[in-house]
Write a structure and sequence with these properties.
It is an enzyme of class 5 (isomerase). With about 260 residues, this protein is an alpha/beta fold. The chain has helices spanning about 20-25, 50-65, 75-90, 100-105, 120-125, 125-135, 145-155, 160-170, 195-200, 210-225, 245-259; strands spanning about 5-10, 35, 70-75, 95, 115-120, 140-145, 180-185, 205-210, 240. The chain has eleven helices and nine strands. α1 (about 20-25) crosses α10, α1 (about 20-25) packs across α11 and α2 (about 50-65) crosses α3 (about 75-90). The longest helix has 18 residues, at about 50-65. The chain starts with 6 loop residues before the first strand and ends with a helix. The structure holds D-glutamic acid.
Amino acid sequence: MSSIDKAIGVFDSGLGGISVLKELRSLMPQEDYLYYGDSSFAPYGVKTKEEITKRCRSICAFFISQGVKAVVIACNTATSACVKELRTLYPDLPIVGMEPALKPAVNGRHQQHVLVLATQFTLKEKKFEQLMSRFDEDNTIYRQPCPKLVELVEAGRLEDEAAVNSALREYLKPYDMERMDSIVLGCTHFVFYRSQLRNLIGDHIALVDGNAGTARHVQELLQERGICRKPSSAVGEVRIYNSLNKEAILKLSRELLER
Ligand code: DGL
C-alpha cells in the first residue's frame, strides 16, 4: 500500500484523544484513522516517565504493525514523557505531539492571567517549565492538576452534572476568576468539559485548547510530504481500539466521537 493510502494513528492514555480525533476528522474527513485508547492503564498523569514511555512504545509498535503514515500523540502527558524517544525510534515516521496551548492563550499580549489545567505529570515536567519560562516574565501563570476530570471521562460520567460541577468547582476555587483572562485546557480529556466550564466561569474568560492547532499541524506535515489525501466526497473510516478491549469502552469512544 502506498503511504498516501495508509491511515493516521492517533493515541491517548484513554478517551481524551477522541477530542483531537474529532478535530482531525473535521479538517481531513477523507483520511482513515486508527484510534488507540490505553484506558486499562489510564490515568497517565500520575504514572512515572518510564511507565508511560513503555506503554507509548508498544502503542507505536502496534501502529507500525498496522501500517500507519503518521502518528498523533493526542495526549499532553505522553508527549512530555516520550515524544523525543519515539521520534528517535521511528525517524521516518511523522510524529506530532501536543503541549498545553499557553502560547495561543497569551497570544503576544502582556500582563495576562492564565490558568493552565493539565495533569500532574505534564505540569511538573521540564518541558512545561521551559514553555512557562517563555511567558511568565510578563504574565501571571497558574497551574492546576485535575485528576478527577480524567476519571469522569473514563467512567463515562460526563453527563453526571453534580459530579462534574463539584470537580470543576474544586479545581477553580483557589483562583480569582474576576482577574483571569484565559484558561488553558492542557489535557485532551478536559476539552469535553468546555460547555460545563463555560457555564461556571461566564463569558469573559477565553477557553483555549490545542486541538485545532494540532490538526492543522498534522495536515501541513502530510502535505509537505505529499501524503495527504486529496479532499473528496468519500469519507474515510475510523477504527477504534482500546487496551480495555471491552464493548462498553468502544461504545463510549464512538459516542464521544459523535458527541
Ligand atoms: N489526556 C491526557 C493528556 O492530554 C492525559 C490524561 C491522563 O491519563 O492522565 O494529558
